[in-house]
Amino acid sequence: MERKYSLLPTLDRRKFFLALYAAGGILASTGLARAASPLQRQDLPTGAKPGDWPLTGCDLRGTRSNVHETIIGPSNVGGLKVKWTFEGAGNFNQATPVVVGDTLYFTAWDGYVYALNAGSGALKWKFNAWEGIQPNPPGETRPDINIDPLGEMRGGVAYGDGRIFFGAGTGRVHCLNADTGREIWHTLIDPQSGTTRTRVNSDPIYYDGKVFVGLSTSAGDGQAVCLDAGTGAIRWSFDTVPDPKALAGGSIWSAAAIDVEYGVVYNATGSLKGHVAGPMLFSESMIANDMESGELLWYNQLRANDPFDLDYSCHPMLFEATHPTRSGGRRSCVGAGSKTGFHTFDRYTGEHLWTAGVTNGGPVLNSTAYGHDKIYMVSTSSANHRRIAETATVALHAYTGEVLWWTPNASRIQGATAVANNLFYQGFNDGTLQALHVETGEPLWTYQLPAARRGGITISNGTLYTSCGVQRSPPYSLYAFSIEGR
Questions:
Q1: pLDDT in tens, 225-248
Q2: Could you tell me the CATH number of the domain that includes residue 277?
Q3: pLDDT of 390-411, one tens digit each?
Q4: Residue 464 contacts residue 485 (beta carbons within 8 Å)
């Protein structure tokens, strides 16, 4: 595996980070000074309260861990039962539901955003992102907006300051009033979206009056984009494929992660698509940009020319890792899963720290989470044999990448996981849902959905939310589970 990173010497923020290290490890000593505080932080967008799940990764760090959940735990998780189901969506949901207060928000492939009462599952409102848009006539395209396929909605929503933000297959980003579903603004990211087949498949992140999204294309390149949350105006964009001859590649499929303390936004990019053989920046890379200006601070590229599509398939996670034996040893990390394993870097220099792979494949579609100083990963096998496990669920030490425990699984995974109150939650393609103890991997609860599944798992205020159904395989249901269904 090729590992390559570049620190740009002309950037003031880069100099700032390195100066902190050179001046006697100020970052490290700051971490030691905070050692008495919990190692697992949770940063939430404005308007969200502890216990909510307001972003796809729960917090701005993308950990997929709700540190404020106290109701469901190892002692009672076996009592989880269906509280309600919602059957009103016209197609399946592959994103993670977002919960703020008494409202749950999710997207579906029918092109709608839905708002439900989190306690009862009753519909509050729904919004059609394709309102007024007609499908393309056969063989024709519309240059200014991507409307083929009509209705596709892969990414989820983000909550912030009383608003809902989401992207669509049209190449547009929308902002809605969270209470009413009324549209406040929408922005077409790429003026040639119809030609380049631009989609906003990533889950947005809201922070400090800004919305961060990533673009994916079938006939162009990718971008990391920052929008003004109040107006929808583009504040900056970073081209993930600076080569003008590239046909496509470097798409951003997943959510960003935000370091609020030092103002850095992290993204993981996809592989090459339709590109003449040869190296291409910034495909299959972890990239760190200045949150205010978009300037590149560092990048680390897994492979410059990958013919096997072994790109990042999970969003970045920010975490603090403690040394297994040295008291006070601690470092700030960013990591993400690719189709070959989990890769961890120093958050401020881009230095590669460790990579862990436990199968002949890797995690897919955000099947990773961080909590309790561990990385939890469901690693998919590339083998295809009935006697070989489809996936393995593992716990990795956050500082070293050492495998602490692992267990084989009989089905593959195509959905995001979650951690809360000493439990790791996972769901598989065959419709199986499970809760494992975070210290041992022991299954403490299992439930069988009536169909295959692909959606993410959310744990909020004593309730587990997830979806059932995949494309052309109903029922397209959203499920809520609570202790004894109460």
A1: 999 999 999 999 999 988 777 667
A2: 2.140.10.10
A3: 999 999 999 999 999 999 999 9
A4: no
State yes or no: pLDDT of 102 exceeds 80.
Answer: yes
What pLDDT shows up at residue 308?
84
Q: Residue 444: which residues within 8 A CB-CB, separation 6 or more?
A: 74, 77, 78, 423, 435, 436, 437
Residue 222, domain extent: 4-483
Contact status, residue 274 vs residue 247, Cβ threshold 8 Å: yes
Tokens of 450: 């009536």
Mean pLDDT of 358-373: 93
Region of residue 469 (left: phi > 0; alpha: psi -120 to 50; beta: else): left
**Each residue of 85-122: b (16+ CB within 10 Å) or e?**
ebebbebbbbbbbbbbbebbbbbbbbbbbbbbebeebe
Amino acid identity for residue 408 in this structure? P
Highest mean pLDDT (candidates 52-61, 184-193, 323-332): 52-61
Q: Please check the confidence at residue 424 and state whether its pLDDT lies above 90.
A: yes
User: What gap in Å lies between CA 30 and CA 392, rounded to an integer?
Assistant: 37
Q: Does position 26 have pLDDT exceeding 60, yes or no? A: no
In the numeric block, the tokens 């919602």 are attached to 86
SS3 of the chain: the string is: CCCEEEECCCCHHHHHHHHHHHCCCHHHHHHHHCCCCCCCCCCCCCCCCCCCECCCCCCCCCCCECCCCCCCCCCCHHHEEEEEEECCCCCCCCCCCEEECCEEEEECCCCEEEEEECCCCCEEEEEECCCCCCCCCCCCCCCCCCCCCCCCCCCCEEEECCEEEEECCCCEEEEEECCCCCEEEEEECCCCHHHHCCECCCCCEEECCEEEEECECCCCECEEEEEECCCCCEEEEEECCCCCCCCCECCCCCCCEEECCCCEEEEECCCECCCCCCCCCCCCEEEEEECCCCCEEEEEECCCCCCCCCCECCCCEEEEEECCCCCCCEEEEEEEEECCEEEEEECCCCCEEEEECCCCCECCCCCEEEECCEEEEEEECCCCCCCCCCEEEEEEECCCCCEEEEEEECCCCCCCCEEECCEEEEECCCCEEEEEECCCCCEEEEEECCCCCCCCCEEECCEEEEEEEECCEEEEEEEEEEECCC
**CB of 189 closer than 8 Å to CB of 166:** no
- How much is the pLDDT for 329? 87
Which of these ranges, 349-358, 373-382, 386-395, has the smallest mean pLDDT? 386-395
Domain count within the chain: 1
**What does pTM read for this prediction?**
0.92
